[in-house]
Automatic annotation (TrEMBL):
Cited PANTHER family: ENOYL-COA HYDRATASE, MITOCHONDRIAL (PTHR11941:SF54), ENOYL-COA HYDRATASE-RELATED (PTHR11941)
Pfam families to which the protein is assigned, alphabetical: ECH_1
Keyword Chaperone: no
Identification of the protein by name: Enoyl-CoA hydratase
UniProt entry tagged with the keyword Lyase: yes
């Protein structure tokens, strides 16, 4: 499929998606969100892809939902359009998704970053939920995902003030895994992604599923779910290979079966 708002590529088991509307700082219009979802689902189904990397072209990751597109909507048009179901589907991607953020990640773009399983940020990255300054609030999971990550009090502060959060602060609060100098962000992200792509694919897949369950469910329920996935891995060839390789002191050769 031809994309207008994103650029996709694939190399060494890593599928990359770059947001590409740099003139408006990659403002997320509905078409772009649809294209991101399409590309993610395509990579998810592609056996050659092990890890998905999401980043922005130009001087920002993205400056949030497209205000030009959104400003004339009303409650009924939004309800009928039901645009956020795309976001529900984004949360169902099975392969690990790594976000690489430089410049702004505001509003809907911060929500998109929070959908990623891991985040790397450039020193100049800045995050924030400025919706409140537009008289609205996040609509694509921001209040939920931020609260689960930060706890109630900090989430309230960030969401109600719309303040800008530096990469360092985001790192301090566990929003990003690591902060890199701007010029090495992509190189380091791709290095991490390629290494992640060499881990046992089934184990990585079920770890993702289990961690997301922990975020979403009670500890007890999550542990029952984790246990089932743990048992399930013991019917894979990779479990036998991984443990045999350990005993034989050699590098395992995983096949994803
Ligand atoms: N929607 C549409 N256009 C946008 C945009 C957005 N979210 N963000 C930036 N742009 C456009 C600007 O209008 C400008 O276009 P023109 O050159 O045609 O005027 C261009 O991108 C460059 O932006 P600036 O000149 O403003 O760049 P700057 O460096 O001076 O400022 C900024 C950067 C602080 C990010 C500023 O652009 C800004 O505040 N943008 C809006 C951020 C925002 O409020 N995002 C939240 C949207 S609401 C949301 O996301 C809802 C949701 O949860 C679903």
């Amino acid at each position: 499929r031809e994309y207008q708002c994103i650029v996709v590529s694939e190399a060494e088991g890593v599928g990359s998606i770059e947001l590409n509307r740099p003139r408006v700082l990659n403002a997320l219009n509905r078409q772009m969100v649809g294209e991101i979802l399409h590309a993610m689902e395509h990579f998810d189904a592609d056996e050659g892809v092990r890890v998905i990397v999401l980043t922005g072209r130009g001087r920002a990751f993205a400056a949030g939902a497209d205000i030009d597109e959104m400003m004339h909507e009303d409650t009924v048009s939004l309800e009928m359009m039901n645009q956020f179901t795309d976001w529900d589907r984004l949360a169902c991607i099975k392969k690990p998704v790594i976000g690489a953020v430089h410049g702004f990640a505001l509003g809907g773009a911060f929500e998109l970053a929070l959908c990623c399983d891991m985040l790397f940020a450039a020193e100049t990255a800045s995050f924030g939920f400025p919706e409140v300054q537009l008289g609205i609030m996040p609509g694509a999971g921001g209040t939920q995902r931020l609260t689960k990550l930060l706890g109630k009090t900090k989430a309230m502060e960030w969401l109600m003030t719309g303040k800008r959060i530096s990469a360092q602060e985001a790192h301090k609060y566990g929003i990003v895994n690591e902060v890199f100098a701007d010029e090495v962000l992509m190189e380091e992200t791709m290095k991490f992604a390629a290494a992640l792509g060499k881990q046992a694919p089934l184990a990585v897949r079920l770890i993702k599923e289990s961690v997301l369950k922990a975020v979403d469910h009670s500890l007890y329920e999550g542990m029952q779910f984790e246990r089932k996935n743990f048992y399930l891995l013991f019917s894979s060839e990779d479990q036998k290979e991984g443990m045999a390789a350990f005993k034989e002191k050699r590098v395992p050769h995983f096949k994803g079966r």
